[in-house]
Amino acid sequence: MNTHMLKKLTITAVATLAIGTMIAGCGSDNDSKQAAEGQKVIHVGTNATFVPFEFKDEKTQELNGFDIDMIKAVAQHMNAKVEFKNVSFDALIPSLGNKDIDLAASGMTITKARAEKVLFSSPYYESGLGIVVPANANINTLQDLNGKTVSAQMGTTGADMAKKIEGVTLKQFDHSNEALLELKNGGVAAAVIDLPVAQYYVSKHKDEGFKVIPFPNTKEYFGFAMNQNNKELQAEVNKALAEMKKSGEFNTIYKKWFNTDAPADMPTEWQGK
């Protein structure tokens, strides 16, 4: 083989190898892009001041809680990734409306009024309202609050129900922990908040001397909220919840946070009151 021909073959081989490498490289980039595009991102709004549902870990500052674990598990069933955004509770529904977030996971009670503005998932938690009062106070019924000032979180069913108590003056706060702090500081006679939060707070602060009175006839259910037009996301979330309940995964998460089994008779649909 002469030198000229060897040189020509060498150039051809190098060019072929380079083209092959470029094609392989392009294929690899496309595969990576498709993998990235294949995992849906769900932008989740939460008000991380609602222990034990959503709160920031004091040491790590990472989001923690029942709602956080639940929506992460739901996302896994959907082959999706969750990105959280901390939003004040009364701004969650407007944020869904203008599509700043895709879903709200924030201990939100399913009500008829809210259901006119957003779509809700199947219920994932059975709740009610509680009234936190000093253990030594002579307050055992709603009637005992007549003429007194109480606190509640703005935009919640607790605030709505507190307004209906005869003779009560209401102080509203952005967060439930602020409503409880006002009680602790003596600024109000009672705090009207979600029953599980009330029970959790009292059990964790036994030295502060509070008790919980269940608010009568306030059984309610929490649901994940979504934009009114996003029926596709609603269907995917409901499918994931159903799968989790069937497999026992839902009960495992529930028991982790509340040390008891999830109610067996929780409805799959709830229109609210």
Write the layout of secondary structure elements.
Elements: H1 3-38, E1 40-46, E2 49-50, E3 54-56, E4 63-64, H2 66-77, E5 80-86, H3 92-97, E6 103-104, H4 112-115, E7 118-120, E8 125-127, E9 129-134, E10 149-153, H5 157-163, E11 169-173, H6 176-184, E12 190-194, H7 195-204, E13 210-214, E14 220-222, E15 225-227, H8 231-247, H9 249-258
Parallel strand pairs: 1-5, 1-6, 10-11, 10-12
Antiparallel strand pairs: 2-3, 3-4, 6-15, 7-15, 8-14, 9-12, 9-13
Can you walk through the features of this model?
With 273 residues, this protein is of the alpha/beta class. The chain has two domains: 40-126 and 221-258, Periplasmic binding protein-like II (D-Maltodextrin-Binding Protein, domain 2, 3-Layer(aba) Sandwich); 129-214, Periplasmic binding protein-like II (D-Maltodextrin-Binding Protein, domain 2, 3-Layer(aba) Sandwich), CATH 3.40.190.10. It has helices at 3-38, 66-77, 92-97, 112-115, 157-163, 176-184, 195-204, 231-247, 249-258; strands at 40-46, 49-50, 54-56, 63-64, 80-86, 103-104, 118-120, 125-127, 129-134, 149-153, 169-173, 190-194, 210-214, 220-222, 225-227. The strands form four sheets. Strands 5-1-6-15-7 form a five-stranded mixed β-sheet. The chain has a five-stranded mixed β-sheet with strand order 11-10-12-9-13. The chain is globular and about 60 Å long. The protein starts with a helix and ends in a 15-residue tail after the last helix.
